[in-house]
Amino acid sequence: MTKKKEPKKSQKAKSEKKSALTEWQKRNIEFLKKKEAEKAEKKKRQEKLRLERKPKATDTDTEAEKVEEKALTAEEKKKAKEAKKEEARKAKEAKKLQKLEAKKEKTPLQKAIHHALPVIITSAAILLISIFLVTPFSKKKIITVTGTSTVSQEEVIRDSGIKPSNYLFSLIFHHSTYEKNIISKNKMVKSANFTYRFPNKLDIDIKEYSIIAYAQTDDGYQPILENGTRIGLVGASELPESFLTINLSSEKDIQKLVKAFSKLDKDLVNQIQIVSSADSATTSDLLKLEMHDGNIVRVPLSEVAKKLPYYLKIKDSLPENSIVDMEVGIYATSESIEASVAADKEKAKNENKEESESDSKSDEENSQTESSEEATATESSEAEGAENQAPEATNEEHPNETAVVEQVAQQ
């Protein structure tokens, strides 16, 4: 029987099928072909060895054959191991390719689930949040305050504006509002920072301004913070053993002084005991600094940071209870010297006053003599006028007046 020729369409289908083979399938076919060739070659070698064997072989020949057989078996073992490794590697690659193909070729249901997955997750999250907000646990919160030394936890929570009815999510998402409330309502607070801890814990970390001095008032002492702000009165029991007292009424002056002190050495600032106004007529911002060592320093507020550091250089050479005047230049004096100078000034002032008083008295005497002379001159002129008018009057009409006029004329 003659073989029928296959139609062209079937040949084309086969060629398309061959071309449709994957890379792994092609490599697998090559590997199988190679393996079959190795088996055939192995059979040939074994057949050749069997034919070449002699029935009467010597001991040496048998030993050589054994060595050769061992070498062949070792090579075969190596090749078998390599073949197994190659098969395992190819199997892994095949699994990977199958997974990739499975991912690429998804069913319509899988595709629908993949598209609907974001919506499902979002809806589930919204549902869970809604259920959480309905429960009392959404308003239950544990608040802890850290970093405070003078401000209490109750004050911080009260100033923040947090209420028991506030939701936990509101505190988490609007924490900046509550932080600003604390800073604006409490002068001691420098900064506030909210931190959330799962599930319902809130930590408020507070940083406070440090107290650098106290202002003395009639009612007590007011702490002055590092930003120059004064806060409420404190009792005597709350005062430290040694502290700086600033007795200035102007808030701006206090802030300037605090700013100047921040630029100075802390050791120098710690040596100052009391700061007050020197009440100078020539320098409006002149300050009087009473030191712990008994000395007094007078320095303008505008030049504190510039001139005050020189005190550390000259204080050791000063006698006790000295006055260091830094108003114009820098020089040292004492209360006794200033008192004598003031007395001399007062004496000179009094002498000048006495001289002026004596001059004024002499001027008054001269003026009095001049006024008396003028008075006598006027009296004489009046008397002459009376004599001239007296003969015209009759004795009958004015008898008394003529007598008086005559007496005045005689006088």
Account of the 3D structure:
- The chain is an alpha/beta fold.
- The chain has helices at 8-19, 23-52, 59-104, 108-134, 153-160, 168-173, 175-185, 251-262, 266-270, 304-307, 311-314, 335-389, 399-410, and strands at 142-146, 189-197, 201-208, 211-216, 221-225, 245-247, 272-277, 286-291, 296-300, 322-325, 331-334.
- Strand 10 (322-325) and strand 11 (331-334) form a beta hairpin.
- Helix 5 packs across helix 7 and helix 12 (335-389) crosses helix 13.
- Strands 6-7-8-9-10-11 form a six-stranded mixed beta sheet. It has a three-stranded mixed beta sheet with strand order 1-3-2, with helices on one face. It has a two-stranded antiparallel sheet with strand order 4-5.
User: Order of SSEs, N→C?
Assistant: HHHHEHHHEEEEEHHEEEHHEEHH
How many strands?
Answer: 11
Q: How is the biggest beta sheet arranged?
A: 6 strands, mixed
Describe the oligomeric state of these chains in a short phrase: single chain
Average pLDDT = 77
Structural class by helix and strand composition = alpha/beta
Intertermini distance: 202 Å
Looking across the biggest beta sheet, what order are the strands in? 6-7-8-9-10-11
- Give Rg in angstroms: 60 Å
Q: Looking at the structure, what is the overall shape?
A: elongated
Helix proportion range:
55-70%
Number of helices: 13
The parts where pLDDT drops under 50 for at least 5 residues are: 1-9, 379-411
Percentage of residues in DSSP E strands: 5-15%
Key attributes of the depicted protein:
411 residues; alpha/beta; 6-stranded mixed sheet; 3-stranded mixed sheet; 15% strand; disordered N terminus; disordered C terminus
